[in-house]
Amino acid sequence: MAPFLAYEDKGPASSRQPLVPPTPLVLVHGHPFDRTMWAPQLETFAATRRVVAPDLRGYGASPATPALRDFSGFARDIEALLDELGVDSFVLAGLSMGGQIVLDCYRLFPERVRGLVLADTSAAPETPEGVRARDAMADRLLAEGLRGYADEVLERMVAPYASAEVKAHVHGMMTATSPEGAAAALRARARRPDHRPLLPRVRVPALVVVGADDTYTPVAGARALHAALPDATLHIVEGAAHLPNLERPEVFDTALEAFLARVDARQPSSAPPRL
């Protein structure tokens, strides 16, 4: 079945390609955002490589139906989109919920993944208290919409000292999100799998990034994630909270560029077996 996700698919304007093209980059946004979360990275990296950034089901311009019932549905949607676009292998980058989706992609189709970028995210499952809180928030969003929630959390999503332009972009993404899509995602995310046993079995390079002032996924959690991965680099972005790719894009992109160069330099090897 053809994918129904809205997406950006960008790459070098020139038709001349090197013998070994740079590895495609797939960018997975978090909650409650959309693919414009990755605007600085799309601009930077599409100059030299193919970059695909979808709107997840229920977010941005992607429809909220059929309703998401299982967290793995996000990964399956991405797989279907990449099949349709003919993107066979790639680096997967995700932030927050997007990072959890990236880990689920690696769990489901590791043979296609050449590198992982895990930004401001966690591999642990939800706690019982967290399940109740996410379900309650889903009910609230359906009843009230997202504006009140967006007003409350804006200065946790980005640091209070972030620029007015960044704050406006983030607030705009949140208030434009479908309450039905966000609620379905919250319920599915509350019941996501425990990805911690997967981490020591990851056979590709990983980049772990976190904003120094992130209170949703603090630096200590990023250090634990980094320690559990066999081949990982940790980068702490000073002057940023939960969205360092928007708050400090030049710093984030420098770290990502170095990581992508490392992935590109690796000779393709036989695909790892399914986990």
UniProtKB/TrEMBL annotation:
Q: Which keywords belong to this entry? A: Hydrolase
Q: Which residue ranges does the record assign to the AB hydrolase-1 domain?
A: 25-252
UniProt cross-references to SUPFAM superfamilies, sorted A to Z: alpha/beta-Hydrolases (SSF53474)
Alphabetically, the GO molecular function entries are: hydrolase activity
Query: Which superkingdom is the protein from?
Result: Bacteria
Source taxonomy = Bacteria, Bacillati, Actinomycetota, Actinomycetes, Kitasatosporales
| Entry keyword annotation includes Hydrolase | yes
**Keyword Hydrolase among UniProt keywords:** yes
Q: What is this protein called?
A: Alpha/beta hydrolase
InterPro entries found in the cross-reference section: AB_hydrolase_1, AB_hydrolase_fold, AB_hydrolase_sf
